[in-house]
Specification:
Layout (H helix, E strand, L loop, with lengths): L3 H11 L2 H19 L4 H24 L5 H25 L4 H24 L14 H8 L1 H21 L12 H44 L1
Helix pairs in contact: 2-3, 2-4, 4-5, 4-7, 5-8, 6-7, 7-8
C-alpha cells in the first residue's frame, strides 16, 4: 500500500505553480498544432504565448521554491515537441526540404535527450550545470544568459519565419519581403544551434562512456 504522505507529496508536485504553467504550455502547443496548417494568426499567437511562458515557469519555480524533476522534464519535452511539430508542418509546406526538417528533428530530440539523461546519471542538480571541464562552446552556451537567449530565440525565429513565409509570399514593402529577409538573418543561427545540439550529443556520449568504464572497473575490483 502506498503511504499517504507519498500520495500527498506527489499531488503537491503535480500542482506546483511552474508545473501548472507547463500544462498550459502543452495545451497552447496542441491548439497551435491544430490551426498551424490553415490559420497562422491563432497558431502563431498560441505558439508565441507558449514560448513566452517558458521563461515564466522558470521564474515561478525559483520564486516559489518549486523546482522539480517533473517540471524540468516537462519543460524539456514541451520545447522539443513544439519545435518538432512546427518542423513537421514545414515539411508539408516545403516538401523539397523534408529531409532537412527530419534531420533537424532527429538532432534536436536525440541529442538533448542523451544530454539530459547523462546529466541524470551524473546526478547533476541541473542539465544546465556548467562543469569547468566541459567543451568551451557549451560552457559559453550555458554560462551566458544572453548567448543562450540569442541562440534559442534565433532558432525559433528562423522556423517561425519559414512558417509565415508560406502565407506571406508577396513583398510587404515595394520589392522587399521582410519575412524572407528574416529567414536569411536567422538561418545561420539555426544551423549553429543544430551544431551545438550535436555537440551536446557528443559530450553526453563521452560522459556515459566514462560512467560505463567506472562501473566496469568497480565490478572487476569486486
Amino acid at each position: 500500500m502506498v503511504p499517504v504522505t507519498y500520495i500527498m507529496t506527489t499531488k503537491n508536485v503535480l500542482f506546483f505553480v511552474p508545473n501548472i504553467i507547463g500544462y498550459v504550455r502543452l495545451l497552447l502547443m496542441f491548439v497551435s498544432f491544430y490551426y498551424m496548417p490553415f490559420n497562422y494568426i491563432v497558431s502563431s499567437l498560441c505558439y508565441v504565448i507558449s514560448g513566452l511562458l517558458d521563461a515564466v515557469d522558470g521564474f515561478a519555480a525559483r520564486y516559489f521554491n518549486q523546482i522539480s524533476k517533473l517540471g524540468t522534464m516537462l519543460d524539456q519535452l514541451t520545447d522539443r515537441c513544439g519545435t518538432a511539430g512546427l518542423c513537421m508542418t514545414l515539411s508539408y509546406f516545403y516538401p523539397n526540404y523534408i529531409f532537412l526538417f527530419q534531420l533537424s528533428i532527429v538532432i534536436d530530440i536525440s541529442c538533448h535527450w542523451i544530454f539530459f539523461y547523462s546529466s541524470t546519471l551524473q546526478k547533476k542538480t541541473s542539465h544546465k550545470y556548467v562543469d569547468p571541464s566541459w567543451n568551451p562552446l557549451l560552457k559559453l552556451y550555458y554560462s551566458s544568459r544572453f548567448t543562450l537567449f540569442i541562440m534559442c530565440a534565433g532558432n525559433e525565429a528562423f522556423y517561425a519565419s519559414l512558417y509565415l513565409l508560406h502565407f506571406f509570399k508577396e513583398p510587404q514593402f515595394g520589392d522587399v519581403n521582410l519575412v524572407r529577409i528574416a529567414c536569411y538573418i536567422f538561418g545561420p543561427v539555426a544551423v549553429l544551434k543544430s551544431f551545438i545540439s550535436l555537440l551536446h550529443g557528443y559530450v553526453a556520449c563521452c560522459n556515459v562512456i566514462i560512467i560505463d568504464e567506472k562501473e566496469r572497473e568497480k565490478i572487476c575490483v569486486e
